[in-house]
Design goal:
Helix 1 (2-20) runs antiparallel to helix 6 (244-260) and helix 4 (167-188) runs antiparallel to helix 5 (214-234). A hairpin with a 6-residue loop joins strand 11 and strand 12. The chain is α+β, with helices and mostly antiparallel strands. The relative contact order is 0.17. The longest helix is centred in the middle third of the chain and has 22 residues, at 167-188. It has six helices and 13 strands. It has two domains: 24-161, Coagulation Factor XIII, Chain A, domain 1 (Distorted Sandwich), CATH 2.70.50; 165-267, no CATH class. Strands 1, 4, 6, 7, 9 and 10 form a six-stranded mixed beta sheet that branches.
């Protein structure tokens, strides 16, 4: 019963909180308008602002393929800076940003000969950031020109590269396997689960054979949660910019803790039956 309650609670957290943290439902922009076009097996285009570039229909690109863009700004821009950031990044992605030193996103500068309001250019993502991380993101962009002209917006993007080519996919697979092995060995197997031995008909508990493995099972659930979270985000099932990857990890920890707290197995010692004397063989006195 404890196990069912724990799993049900964690599942409800994922189902209820996850959708509340979903990315924006349309590509938005302020101070500018434009379009994006990405090459690959199939060319994808999206207008900003516009109905595309949503969580359900993200702008799709391949990391090593060119992305072209055109833009019209409300005010002329000559020189300035640009910044790309991941909005509402999950705990896993934020940790990756910290490790790579991109906690404030990708930034750069641009120079122009003269101020203008119409621009077009192209770039290859792999030339800016060599690390490819497939999945869905809510990307925020900011372009600031000298003199105060500014263009901001958000768009949902899906990186389509095969997840199996990424080292995080193999890390996720190893964590899932390790978590399952630990759960089976320390939580599910009858060989390791503690046992209560009942020694009489009244069911008095005399001793425990074995101990609970709560820390090991909790660690197993943590491994399993991270592995599943990574797999689902790499395949784009859930977005890096939602709370769902974090909640999956919490669900894994709750699962492991629940397995560690499973009720112990009860067994009864074999009852020793005393043999009754055979009175038929006893000779009665004269």
């Amino acid at each position: 019963m404890k196990m069912r309650s724990l799993v049900l609670t964690a599942t409800l957290i994922v189902l209820l909180v996850g959708p509340l943290a979903a990315p924006a439902q349309a590509a938005t922009s302020q101070g500018c308008a434009g379009s994006l076009s990405a090459e690959g097996p199939s060319i994808d285009t999206v207008a900003v602002p516009g109905p595309g570039g949503t969580n359900a229909n993200p702008f799709q690109l391949y990391w090593a393929e060119p992305v072209s863009w055109t833009a019209q700004t409300d005010a002329p821009i000559t020189d300035g800076t640009w910044r790309l950031t991941i909005q509402n990044s999950s705990w896993l992605f934020a940790l990756g940003e910290l490790v790579t030193g991109h906690i404030h996103g990708l930034t750069g500068t641009f120079n122009g000969v003269q101020g203008g309001t119409s621009f077009s250019n192209s770039f290859t993502p792999s030339a800016i950031e060599p690390v490819t991380l497939p999945g869905k993101y809510e990307v925020g962009f900011t372009v600031t020109g000298i003199g105060g002209a500014k263009c901001t917006g958000t768009i949902s993007v899906r990186v389509m590269d095969p997840p199996g080519h990424n080292p995080f996919w193999w890390l996720a697979l190893l964590l899932i396997i390790a978590g399952l092995i630990l759960l089976v060995v320390f939580g599910i197997s009858k060989l390791t689960r503690p046992v209560v031995v009942r020694t009489n008909n009244r069911g008095r508990k005399m001793k425990y054979a074995g101990a609970r493995h709560v820390p090991s099972n909790t660690l197993a659930g943590f491994f399993l949660g991270i592995g599943v979270s990574l797999m689902l985000t790499l395949y784009g099932v859930v977005g890096w910019s939602t709370a769902t990857p974090d909640l999956i990890i919490i669900l894994g920890v709750v699962l492991g803790l629940g397995v560690g707290l499973l009720p112990v197995r009860s067994v009864g010692e074999p009852t020793v039956t005393r043999a009754k004397p055979d009175y038929s063989s006893v000779t009665r006195p004269g």
